[in-house]
Design a protein that fits this description.
Helix content: 25-40%
CATH topology: Peptide Deformylase
Number of helices: 5
Number of domains: 1
Distance between the termini: 23 Å
Largest sheet: 5 strands, antiparallel
Shape: globular
Strand order of the largest sheet: 2-3-4-7-8
Structural class: alpha+beta
Bound molecules: nickel (II) ion
Low-confidence stretches: none
Mean pLDDT: 94
Number of strands: 9
Length: about 190
């Protein structure tokens, strides 16, 4: 089932999300719903706080981006990250334009290290440790931030952020027009 996306202005996006226990009710359904929501909204990553659940889980599927960018490693990058921990980030920081389903129609260059090592449970509660770089690392870093109550606009320079304030204000008042389901903050 496609879930409505919580947008800028909703407090759940600013909370540090809770760890999930192996006995969490309805986890399989949540995962299925998150993938469906991500597809419906043309996203390549989605974290549970974005559908109103303050839980440490995000899903990623970068295959739509593989065609645009001609990067074959994005094609089969489809994962569920449960209780992830970024163990290490390294390399010369690089700028990449990020967007977010919770910040409709805002895109900004964000600078982050190119490599991550991450530990997480997959959807079968199997513990994994993997290293990613480039766009795959970037999507992970962005989604991981959501579990910490952070948004990419927190990582841009204050002048750029100031320039966005009218648009952010409009989002938080529900004055936006987009083609996926959202929860309007002040309605
Ligand atoms: Ni996001």
């Amino acid at each position: 089932m496609e879930l409505p996306v919580y947008v800028y202005g909703m407090s759940v996006l600013r909370k540090v999300a809770s760890e999930i226990s192996e006995t969490e009710d309805g986890l399989d359904q949540l995962i299925a719903d998150m993938f469906e929501t991500m597809r419906a909204s043309d996203g390549i990553g989605l974290a549970a706080p974005q559908v109103g659940k303050s839980l440490r889980i995000f899903v990623v599927d970068t295959s739509p981006a593989s065609e645009d960018r001609d990067e074959p490693e994005l094609k089969d990058f489809r994962r569920v990250f449960v209780n992830p921990i970024i163990l290490e980030e390294w390399g010369d920081p690089w700028a990449f334009e990020e967007g977010c389903l919770s910040l409709p129609k805002i895109r900004e260059e964000v600078t982050r290290p190119p490599n991550v090592r991450i530990e997480y449970f997959d959807e079968h509660w199997e513990l994994k440790e993997e290293v990613f770089d480039g766009v795959r690392a970037r999507v992970i870093q962005h989604e991981y931030d959501h579990l910490e109550g952070k948004l990419f606009i927190d990582r841009i320079n204050p002048i750029r952020r100031k320039l966005l304030s009218a648009r952010l204000n409009a989002i938080s008042r529900g004055r936006i027009d987009i083609d996926y389901k959202i929860v309007y903050p002040r309605k």
